[in-house]
Write a structure and sequence with these properties.
Layout lengths: L2 H17 L7 E10 L9 E7 L2 E7 L4 E4 L1 H7 L3 H20 L15 E11 L2 E11 L2 E7 L4 E4 L5 H8 L2 H32 L5
Antiparallel strand pairs: 1-2, 1-5, 2-3, 3-4, 5-6, 6-7, 7-8
Length: about 210
């Protein structure tokens, strides 16, 4: 493994670790999307699981086209307007990502077959504002790219992803979409769900 690759993976680990933490008044919302270019009948081509402050609260799959609440927070917010908006956006995001998937390859040596794209989107809020947002892309299980959507800065984790980075970097509409959904939509969902966070903590059974 090259020094650059090792450094890239270290940077990614640090950023994702921070994204999943709740430090002081900071809160995080992360959505893990798995997109398949092809799927067998009865199997979803898109699956999503979301967590707030590392606690899973939502699950979605394209086969049922429905979202399932998880845990206390999921039950607390699944009848809200923001839950409906999040559900609709997840379906749209899956379709957007599936459109770029067929032309996405890490390198010429990559094993042939239908590609699978994994995207981890995280946003953080602190002091009543969005304090961070990022998207982490993996292809067929290989860590590829990291996008800091606050500054629109791309970091290549796998050298084979350089071509993808250059193509996506030059696609202004795609970059705008990534920024909007992470710093705008994600931050808004997090802000709204935080209103229910205290209720979730109060309703959580106490261990004796």
């Amino acid at each position: 493994m090259s020094v650059a690759h090792s450094a890239g993976r270290l940077l990614l680990t640090l950023l994702l670790t921070e994204a999943g933490k709740t430090l002081g008044n900071a809160h995080s919302l992360c959505l893990d999307l798995t997109i398949k270019s092809q799927s067998r009948p009865g199997q979803p081509w898109c699956q999503v699981q979301g967590s707030m402050n590392t606690k899973p609260f939502i699950q979605y799959d394209s086969d049922s086209n429905k979202v399932k609440p998880l845990g206390f927070l999921g039950k607390e917010v699944n009848d809200t307007n923001v839950w409906t908006e999040l559900s609709e956006t997840l379906a749209e995001a899956g379709k957007e990502l599936k459109m770029v998937l067929p032309v996405t390859k890490l390198d010429k040596k990559e094993t042939r077959g239908p590609p699978t794209l994994q995207v981890k989107m995280c946003c953080q809020r602190e002091a009543e504002q969005c304090s961070g947002a990022s998207l982490h892309f993996s292809l067929n299980g290989r860590t590829a790219l990291l996008l800091d959507t606050m500054s629109i800065t791309w970091t290549v984790i796998d050298p084979g992803a350089t071509g993808i980075k250059e193509e996506w970097e030059n696609n202004q509409e795609l970059a705008k979409y990534f920024r909007t959904i992470s710093t705008g939509d994600c931050s808004y969902w997090l802000r709204e769900f935080l209103k229910h966070w205290e209720n979730m903590l109060l309703q959580r059974p106490q261990n004796h």
